[in-house]
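A common beginner's mistake is to predict each chain separately and then try to dock the pieces by hand. The better habit, illustrated here, is to supply every component at once so that their relative placement is modeled jointly.
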Amino acid sequence: MTPMTCIEDLRQVARRKVPRAFFEYVEGGAYAEETLRANRADLERIKLRQRVLVDVGGRSATTTILGEPAALPLALAPIGLCGMQHGDGEILACRAAQTAGIPFTLSTMSICSIEDVAGAVGKPFWFQLYVMKDRGFIRDLIARAKAAKCSALILTVDLQVLGQRHRDIKNGMTVPPQLRLSNLIDIATKPAWALSVLRGKRKIFGNIAGHIKGMENVNSLTQWISGQFDPALNWKDVEWIAGLWGGKLIIKGILDVEDARNAAATGAAALVVSNHGGRQLDGAPSSISMLPKIADALGSGIEIMFDGGIRSGQDLFRALALGARACLSGRAYIYGLGAAGEPGVARAIEIIKNELDVTMALTGVKTVAEIGRQNIAAV
Ligand SMILES: Cc1cc2nc3c(=O)[nH]c(=O)nc-3n(C[C@H](O)[C@H](O)[C@H](O)COP(=O)(O)O)c2cc1C
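With all components supplied together, the output reads:
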């Protein structure tokens, strides 16, 4: 097999291995995908300042995230339906992250449940919460994440209503899902994927099925979920959730300076500058364009994390230089998962790590803490 030298290589293999509906579910963004494209384009525009004849021996990309040691300033982002990229995808990705020494986040919309993952991995992971109208369910979900010893709760606040993704509708990823002849023919050409999913612990949303009465099949589940996102969600609810959780809270989906100040005022441990990977408000600015503004506005009381468009160690370096303490990887690791399961995720992390290390060397930096605006080229 040709060596996988970059994230794009993993993406190409995932494209061949994963059925089109699920691959495009990952690829796509909301509406005209302007914000999705801006996330990448704006990152690429940032040029790095090359420095020479600086002693960069003994470099290290290690850091701490929320006070815990991490092998690099990266965590795996919450991604719904990981188990549809590869059977047991959540468990495999979590294992790869833990072996690499970085945090993994399990989505509310995962296929494997909190308990499935907790029972299959050695260390604590982060749990991501979508707040549903059914607050009793949310109370239980938080209690389950606590019982599973999750070490942080990511509260996602940018999905009170769903940004329409044209590709999902065209591919039958609707409520209820529509399995068309074209989907079946496509799946028939991906036997390795089909086998892995068939062998997986679960086929539907593991955190929800069996926990709400009458929600056992895909149709009832998707209908319940689509009616449950709560447009009334507000800062008061954040207080309620923080109180229930009692541990480290990360608020994800901040793209505005005023919202960032509000997030810091809640006492949350961290916020994630994010536009949900361009999947929600189309026409919103890229995440990277908002990062320095938010970083400048906040003091050191809250850790600033970033996601949106990271496909390389160079991108990770750009975000660190503009004020992120750590970043979340979304699609980059999902391509690895679709391409090759656990080793694919491990390879994605390794690629980004190696690229970050070389970027540090060529910009004259030895430690993650040193990376800053001075490493951006004035062009
Ligand atoms: C397929 C897919 C599913 C996602 N599911 C969730 C989710 O369940 N919860 C959440 O908070 N964010 C979710 N996100 C957003 C990611 O956590 C992250 O913000 C985004 O992927 C970052 O952009 P990137 O993919 O360009 O790295 C999802 C993103 C993708 C691509």
